[in-house]
Design a protein that fits this description.
Length: about 625
């Protein structure tokens, strides 16, 4: 039950960290100011929104822009416009939903096809469409004909299900429903991204591959939960004996959160919170707490062999309960049951055929059988690696670290902004005598012109022709060829998208599915474990590589890009371009240094088994 102390909230509430919502009320310390990188993102987002709105006004003479003013006036104007069936409402403010405790300002309100009710559309400065022929095509409508009726499938292109976008649209949907102005023929919302079309989303469809609940269901649960968090925080503020509902956990939002200066030290105290481990999120953290595991040391102390059985679906609870109750020579079959063949086979594989042998199982680890986590053994190894004395360990079963090498090697690293890729950096290494197919060393394919689709595809075509030519010469001269990236999810996604835009889909797909295309992140991650970030900046430290530029990182590179293409002072623009090229050159050099280290040194690192079986 929500107390009246919680004022109506915007859609951001559902998509943000609940702890952040709590600290926004409590204000346990001075929040960190927004970083320049974050400020830039906000500013570019506002500029993009203004561009799109200007374009929409040109295209839709009948559009109504809700004038700035008092919130109540804007809400009344928006409601009146919807009741008058205005064909496009820009900058509106939906009537405050006092029962649902919602406020919201969708960028666009578009009438349903039958003019009964409206749909919300937001403008976001990011890409909404991926090239993905394997998924159902995105349904998009053009800016000159915005409505769902004009939407058509875009073959080979799938809509990105960005959770934060969909929860925002679900928030507007609930507000439209509360106002009696929601379209009656389906819960749909749209996003206009840098693709410059309306990408439509069915808010009653599953939110994503890992989330079967619909966007509406997830939104309802998340928004309601955060309202409870806010209510508890308000009560705690009035009476510190009243408990808070949530506590910090390290999530992807933390690095840019104003409260990291408060949460970070708490999480890093002592052996450190389990959420500091890669891929250990809210859910896993809560399950560990349920089992009395509150930090990385306690997680590291769990029994790996027992965890493997739990992860494989073996219910160890009856076995643990039988210890000391039944005789030690009782066959496991008598405890597990004759029908559970798969479980018995897994136990036998682990050398457990009698209760006596089961005594070696870890009781506290076996207790996880009530909520089995498939990656519990991995989490235990991550915790051990994080707290172990070596900077990295070989994974279980890895005797020698292997990395594919070639006679001709090319490290590839792209740099992009929201609107597209402006730089493909390459580093050619020749490891075969007699090569005359082109020079070794760094080569950058870049454009410093303002980003347009033509600029981006022209650059990609140039880069691709060079890469394909080099690969072709290597093949003709009987040499092996390898091209490396660090994290194929990033590079591969851009390759697919730009290949589709340049009629190179089959050619690029043949390359990226071949052994010639190597993801060094995967090479690293499948053979080594550190318990911390596996980003290139982090793992390059293992081989002693450092970047020449200050503050190397994707966020900083965007700040420099703005200067490189937009600075009025030519010297400032040149300095920014030099920074970006030096940064990119070191990114590919770091990948080469890491590869050499993987090849020559990494095998001498200890196996993770030295920290416990
Ligand atoms: S630092 Fe992380 S856990 Fe803390 S409020 Fe921010 S996002 Fe949430």
């Amino acid at each position: 039950m929500i107390t009246p102390d919680v004022p109506p909230q915007g859609g951001y509430l559902a998509k943000q960290c609940p702890v952040r919502a709590q600290w926004d009320v409590i204000r346990p310390t001075e929040p960190r100011p927004d970083s320049p990188v974050l400020e830039r993102r906000f500013a570019r987002g506002r500029e993009f929104e203004q561009q799109i709105v200007a374009r929409l006004i040109d295209l839709h003479p009948g559009a109504l822009i809700i004038a700035p003013g008092e919130r109540a006036d804007r809400e009344a104007d928006t409601l009146a416009a919807m009741r008058a069936a205005v064909p496009l409402i820009l900058g509106g403010r939906l009537p405050t939903d006092l029962i649902g405790r919602r406020v919201g300002e969708p960028d666009l309100l578009i009438p349903a096809d039958d003019q009964a009710g409206y749909r919300a559309v937001d403008i976001k400065h990011h890409r909404c469409l991926d090239a993905d022929p394997g998924r159902p095509p995105a349904h998009c409508s053009p800016l000159h004909h915005l409505g769902w009726a004009a939407a058509a499938p875009v073959p080979g292109s799938a809509a990105r299900n960005r959770r934060e976008d969909l929860l925002q649209l679900a928030h507007y949907q609930r507000m439209l429903e509360a106002a009696g102005m929601a379209a009656g023929d389906g819960r749909l919302g749209g996003i206009i991204g840098v693709d410059r079309v309306v990408a439509w989303y069915d808010l009653d469809a599953a939110l994503g591959r890992q989330e079967r609940r619909s966007a509406m269901q997830v939104y309802d649960a998340e928004f309601e939960f955060r309202l409870q968090v806010l209510a508890a925080a308000a009560e705690h503020l009035a009476d510190p004996d009243r408990p808070l509902l949530v506590e910090p956990a390290r999530i992807s939002e933390c690095p840019e959160c104003p409260w990291w200066s408060w949460c970070g030290p708490q999480l890093q105290t002592g052996p450190g919170d389990v959420s500091l481990l890669p891929r250990v999120g809210w859910r896993a953290r809560r399950m560990h707490r349920d089992h009395g595991v509150t930090n990385r040391a306690e997680l590291a102390a769990l029994d790996h062999r027992t965890a493997t059985l739990v992860a494989d679906g073996v219910d160890l609870r009856p076995i643990i309960a039988a210890l000391g109750t039944l005789p030690d020579d009782t066959p496991i079959t008598a405890v597990v049951g004759a029908r559970k063949r798969a479980q018995r086979a897994r136990l036998a594989g682990a050398g457990i055929r009698t209760l006596h042998q089961a005594r070696a199982l870890g009781k506290s680890t076996a207790a996880y059988a009530d909520q089995p986590m498939r990656d519990l053994p991995e989490q235990i190894d991550l915790a051990r690696a994080a707290l172990g004395g070596a900077p990295a360990y070989r994974r279980r079963g890895v005797r020698r670290v292997e990395v594919p090498r070639g006679d001709v090697e090319v490290d590839i690293d792209l740099e992009n902004v929201e609107d597209g890729v402006y730089l493909w950096g390459t580093l050619v290494t020749i490891r075969s005598p007699g090569w005359a197919g082109g020079p070794a060393g760094y080569r950058a394919f870049c454009r410093w012109a303002p980003m347009t689709a033509a600029v981006e595809t022209g650059l990609f075509a140039e880069f691709w022709a060079w890469l394909a030519g080099l690969r072709g010469v290597a093949a003709e001269t009987g040499r092996t060829f390898r091209a490396y990236c660090y994290n194929a999810a990033a590079e591969g996604g851009q390759l697919r998208r730009l290949a589709a835009a340049t009629d190179l889909t089959d050619e690029v797909a043949a390359f990226t599915s071949s052994a010639d295309w190597v993801d060094l992140l995967r090479v690293f991650d499948t053979q080594l474990i550190t318990g911390s970030s596996t980003g290139l900046k982090a793992v390059a430290r293992l081989c002693g590589f450092t970047w020449a530029v200050q503050d190397p990182g994707g966020g900083e590179s965007m700040l420099h890009y703005d200067q490189a293409v937009g600075a009025a002072d030519p010297a400032a623009a040149q300095a920014a371009r030099d920074w970006l090229l030096a940064y990119n050159r070191d990114d590919v050099a770091a990948a080469l240094a890491l590869r050499d280290w993987l090849d020559q040194t990494a095998s001498s690192y200890p196996p993770i088994e030295v920290l416990g079986t």
